[in-house]
Write a structure and sequence with these properties.
seven-stranded mixed beta sheet, alpha/beta, six-stranded mixed beta sheet, about 500 residues
């Protein structure tokens, strides 16, 4: 069994001897420096320069000079010891030249948080829940930041982050902030979203723009709180009693998450409706190297937000051709309107008039038709692979990466395949998806749940049966090897209609 070099150091007493040399017994607390020692050991085994470790330690502990010094000494000793006492391997890590556009290492929840800051979100509420809490805590830690002002100079900006008593309060506070004119969101996972269903309906009835970032995990109930799934798609599409519009959107990787966040806020405000942004455990905690985010790609569209009103009686729920009414912030001068969970007229007054009821339902739901007309095709669904392939994979969310890698392997084997990644899940872009499928003969649905929730939506919306299903629901992300083999079995005509993947840790 392979024993890491830093563990051998500890067991053979070398660390204790180094403590005596350094004259500081605090270094004996190896447990607080084991990560630094592991990195140093790995760098030595890979024959990589020590300098990046020292720079990183100094940066992380820039406010704690003594702690930085202790970690550097420990890392140097481990690095030197491994070089002198362990046999060199054939592996050598070479430096990668810096790209012109820069690279950053980031996790999914960080990308979402940064996307919210860049996209103009200035209020977030949350109740602690795995894995969604990481995002809100990150926002709390970075609540004050620098932004580029209208004059092009750096200015101080901030976001208010509130930990509420429960998820009911979290959605209610986000809705309140939205009514006040702030770009507002809340972040949660399945059990918390269950508690938000009634609040979501209130936002739909009152046409309040609010974003819910839904980090999926294994369910039901507590389920697998620290494991991966895509089990909440249909829940997101249908959550809440009655009928009201909402947009459900899913990102495919960490880089997409950042740019999509600004888009979902634009959708919420342009169509004055709740938007549910689906992420999942795997994506939230994956660490990826991505291109430095390009802020010029982040566009803010606040829709029909009116700053002043001086002409007659303001009708918050005015009937319009598009279904979208002029919106004002609470407290706007010369404006009075009412918000209620009941059905209402154009002013917001409660009514049960049968004709007004029909007109109001139609007004609200009409906004989904408008969204399908206006949202760019590239924001609805993306295409990868061979256009003339007979086999097409249909999927959504974090399966994107492993599907693309499997496609590369299959291409080397001589198999043609195309992949349609659907991002706008509700309202479903049937025309766009059908266009991308083209003349493909076989449809393959790949997703992380038992009941093929996405496949059922596709089948209903484009009126075509799914030929093959590749499903996984054991809480672990799909591995490249199992997706590759499952797809290869389909090409070889050896696959069952449903293949359940079950690779573990």
């Amino acid at each position: 069994m392979f024993v890491p070099s830093y563990v051998k150091l500890y067991k053979t007493g070398e660390l204790k001897r180094r403590v005596e040399i350094l004259g500081d017994p605090r270094i004996a607390r190896m447990d607080v420096m084991i990560n630094v020692m592991a990195v140093a050991s790995s760098f030595a085994l890979l024959q990589y320069d020590f300098a990046p470790i020292e720079r990183a330690i100094n940066y992380v502990f820039k406010a704690k000079e003594k702690v930085a010094k202790l970690n550097i000494e420990a890392a140097k000793y481990v690095y030197k010891y491994v070089l002198e006492n362990f046999e060199r391997t054939s592996y050598k890590l070479e430096p990668v030249s810096k790209s012109e556009d820069g690279r950053i290492i980031i996790q999914g929840y960080q990308a979402s948080a940064l996307g919210k800051i860049a996209g103009g979100c200035r209020f977030q509420s949350y109740y602690p829940i795995t894995p969604a809490s990481d995002e809100s805590v990150y926002l709390e830690d970075n609540a004050v930041f620098e932004i580029i002002g209208e004059n092009g100079e750096l200015e101080k900006g901030s976001i208010v982050v509130v930990q509420t008593e429960d998820e009911i309060a979290a959605i209610a506070m986000a809705i309140g902030a939205g009514l006040a004119g702030v770009r507002a969101s809340t972040a949660t996972s399945g059990p918390g979203f269950s508690l938000m269903a009634e609040g979501l309906g209130w936002a739909g009835m009152n046409e309040v723009p609010v974003v819910v970032t839904l980090y999926q995990r294994g369910g039901p109930s507590t389920g697998l709180p620290t494991r991966h799934s895509q089990e909440d798609l249909l829940f997101a599409v249908y959550a809440g009693h009655g009928e009201f519009p909402r947009i459900v959107y899913a990102s495919g990787d960490v880089e997409e998450v950042f740019y999509d966040v600004a888009k979902v806020f634009n959708f919420a405000e342009r169509y004055q409706t709740p938007v549910i942004h689906l992420i999942d455990k795997g994506m939230a905690n994956s660490i990826m190297t991505v291109k430095k985010f390009d802020l010029s790609k982040v566009k803010i569209d606040r829709g029909e937000l009116v700053e002043t009103f001086v002409d007659g009686v303001y009708k918050r729920f005015k009937f319009t051709e598009t279904g979208v009414s002029p919106r004002v912030k609470l407290g706007t001068e010369n404006v009075v309107f009412w918000n209620t969970g009941d059905e209402h007229d154009e002013l917001g007054h409660i009514t049960e008039d049968h004709e007004v009821r029909t007109m109001m339902v139609d007004k609200r739901m009409k906004k989904l038709e408008l969204a399908l007309q206006e949202i760019d095709d590239e924001d609805k669904a993306l295409f990868y692979g061979d256009d003339d392939a007979d086999y097409v994979v249909l999927s959504w969310g974090s399966t994107k990466g492993v599907i693309l890698d499997a496609m590369d392997m299959l291409k080397k084997d001589g198999y043609k395949l195309k992949f349609v990644q659907v991002k706008l899940l509700h309202p479903f872009p049937s025309d766009r998806v059908s266009e991308l499928i083209g003349d493909a003969r076989f449809l393959i649905d790949i997703e992380h749940n038992k009941t093929a929730q996405f496949g059922s939506i596709v089948k209903r919306e484009i009126l075509r049966d799914i030929d093959y299903y590749i499903l996984k629901y054991n809480g672990r992300p799909m591995s490249l090897s199992e997706v590759y083999m499952a797809l290869k079995l389909i090409f070889e005509n050896k696959a069952n209609k449903i293949q359940v993947l079950n690779n573990g840790d």
